[in-house]
Amino acid sequence: MGDALEAVLGSPRRVLDLGCGPGSLSLRLLNRFPGLSMTAVDHDPVLLTIGSKAAGTVRGRLRWVDADLRTSEWDADLGPGRYDAALSTTALHWLPSRDLTRLYRGLSRRIRPGGLFLNGDHMPLPPDSPGLRAATHRWRRRAREGRDSGVRGETWEEFWRSVARSTSLKREWEEHQRRYPPHHSAESNLTPGQHARRLRAAGFREVAVLWQHMENQVLVALR
After folding, report:
1. What is the pTM of this model?
2. Which residue from 3, 9, 15, 36 has the highest number of Cβ atoms inside 10 Å of its Cβ?
3. Cα–Cα distance for residue pair 123/191, rounded to 1 Å
4. Whole-angstrom distance, CA of residue 20 vs CA of residue 71
5. C-alpha radius of gyration, the chain, whole number
6. Residue 35 φ/ψ, nearest 5 degrees
7. Is 90 exceeded by the pLDDT of residue 37?
8. What is the per-residue pLDDT across 177-212, written as a single tens digit (0 to 9) for each?
9. Kind and range of the H or E element at 104?
10. Cα separation, 173 vs 97, whole angstroms
């Protein structure tokens, strides 16, 4: 994603991080581009608290915004002006198709002409490839269990259990549960082609898969 920003924009100045979580992508980009300002957007009070307390504002270059990407007013607190780019990693697959389509239309208005949208996420292979889809699901399961690398990472379920036990995040955890009741949404099953059609309909000129590893893909859209 950083390579794409540099190749197309040179030195981006103003970028959105959508579904930022604790801000790992924002911090990587701020380290890479000295003149960059990031706006990190999420609606999870736990992740926003962890990120903002750990990273702060990076000397005024990082702004945290609590906004629900599922609503038409998600960008109300961003203030005026357009952005050079918007990026997201493993976040937008939780949006229902209707909300995602609306978000893409909003991004088309928020990203300046010549700017970029980059979405790195799980995007299934076409439904007419059932054998390959099954193989990628097996690979994802192996990766989660660390059977290839020998290193097993913490699962989201384990992470949230530790948050629920935390006394310092008690208020944020209660708000998280209010905003996201159990089984609040199903994971989107949109293919890259289906994403591309929605992005073009929203006003993006060119859309392509920039990078792929199994079902992990980075989709790039040029405004």
Report:
1. 0.91
2. 15
3. 5
4. 17
5. 18
6. -95, 10
7. yes
8. 999 987 656 677 899 999 999 999 999 999 999 999
9. helix 97-110
10. 27
